[in-house]
C-alpha cells in the first residue's frame, strides 16, 4: 500500500532546504517528477534555481518571494499575497502536474510569519494524493504542522566558525 509521507525539516540549524533538495535529486534519479515551491525566496542565482533547465522536465522550481527582501522585519502585504499565490500554485501543480515529490520550501516560516494560515496548509496537505510525498521546510514550524507530518527532523547547529563565509555551491 502506497501512502503519502509528509517530511518536515525545521530548527535553527542550516540545511533544511539542502536536505529537501537532496531528496529531490534522489527522486529525479529514479525518474520521478519533482515540483519545488519556494516561499519567501526570490533570488535566481541559487544552485537549485540555476539547475532547473538541466533537470527539466523531471524538475521544476517556482519562487514566491518579494524581490529584495532582506529580513523578517521588512514583511508587508505583498509578502502575504506572494505566499498565498505560492500555495495556490502548489494546489494547481498537485492536480495538473502530478509530481511524485512536492517540496514546500520555507512554508513553515511563511506560516510562522502569518503569511499563510496553518489550517489552510493542513487542509491542503490532507488533499494530496496518496502516492505523492511532501517535504515541508523552514524554521519555526508550528506545532500543528509538526503533528500533521509523518516524519519530523529538527536541525540543530552544534558548531560554526566565528565568521561564516557563504560559498557558491554550498550555501547557495
UniProtKB/TrEMBL annotation:
Molecular function GO terms recorded: ATP binding; corrinoid adenosyltransferase activity
InterPro entries linked: CblAdoTrfase_CobA (IPR003724), P-loop_NTPase (IPR027417)
Family matches, as Gene3D superfamilies: P-loop containing nucleotide triphosphate hydrolases
Listed GO biological process terms: cobalamin biosynthetic process
Superkingdom to which the source organism belongs: Archaea
UniProt-recorded name of the protein: Cobinamide adenolsyltransferase
The species this protein was found in: candidate division MSBL1 archaeon SCGC-AAA259A05
Amino acid at each position: 500500500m502506497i501512502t503519502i509521507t509528509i517530511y518536515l525539516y525545521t530548527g535553527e540549524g542550516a540545511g533544511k532546504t539542502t536536505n529537501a533538495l537532496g531528496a529531490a535529486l534522489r527522486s529525479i534519479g529514479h525518474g520521478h517528477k519533482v515540483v519545488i515551491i519556494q516561499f519567501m525566496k526570490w533570488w535566481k542565482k541559487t544552485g537549485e534555481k540555476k539547475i532547473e533547465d538541466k533537470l527539466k522536465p523531471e524538475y521544476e522550481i517556482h519562487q514566491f518571494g518579494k524581490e529584495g527582501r532582506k529580513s523578517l522585519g521588512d514583511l508587508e502585504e505583498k509578502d502575504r499575497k506572494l505566499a498565498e499565490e505560492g500555495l495556490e500554485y502548489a494546489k494547481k501543480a498537485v492536480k495538473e502536474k502530478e509530481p511524485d515529490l512536492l517540496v514546500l520550501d520555507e512554508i513553515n516560516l511563511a506560516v510562522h510569519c502569518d503569511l499563510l494560515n496553518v489550517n489552510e496548509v493542513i487542509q491542503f496537505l490532507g488533499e494530496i494524493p496518496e502516492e505523492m510525498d511532501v517535504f515541508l521546510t523552514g524554521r519555526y514550524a508550528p506545532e500543528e504542522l509538526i503533528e500533521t507530518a509523518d516524519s519530523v527532523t529538527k536541525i540543530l547547529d552544534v558548531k560554526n566558525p566565528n565568521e561564516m563565509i557563504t560559498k557558491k555551491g554550498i550555501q547557495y
